[in-house]
Design a protein that fits this description.
Elements lengths: L2 H7 L6 E9 L2 E8 L4 E2 L6 E2 L2 E14 L2 E13 L9 E3 L14 H4 L3
Parallel strand pairs: 2-6
Antiparallel strand pairs: 1-2, 3-4, 5-6, 6-7
The structure holds zinc ion.
Length: 112
């Protein structure tokens, strides 16, 4: 299968890397992280590559052959270096995969 075909099946592969895939407690777990060199501040839109820290979000995704899928997303927190911006630290947004505070992927709660 070509990367192009896989990318059309899983659109977020363009911005995320799959670090690990495993079965755990009857579910498929994918550990993914951003492959984007920078992320835009949600307040001022200035890109930043200055990583402050990481945290992991757990997102339910569409099942594979009836098996539940859980995505462990390593989210970067970055510094906003724009001195005119009121936001000092922000979490990277990944609209291709999910929305802030959601516990599901976009395609699970809004299937196309
Ligand atoms: Zn900013």
């Amino acid at each position: 299968m070509s990367t192009l075909a896989l990318g059309s099946l899983i659109p977020w592969l363009a911005v995320l890397s799959v670090e690990a895939l495993q079965m755990c407690d009857g579910a498929i777990e994918l550990h993914v992280s951003s492959r984007q060199p920078t992320a835009a501040c949600p307040v001022c839109a200035q890109p930043s590559a200055a990583v402050h820290s990481h945290y992991v979000r757990r997102l339910a995704d569409l099942p594979w052959a009836g098996i539940p899928v859980v995505i462990h997303l390593a989210v970067r927190k970055l510094f906003c270096r724009n001195t005119a911006c009121p936001r000092r630290i922000f979490a990277e947004r990944l609209p291709q995969l999910t929305a802030p505070y959601r516990r599901q992927t976009l395609r699970l709660w809004e299937p196309v």
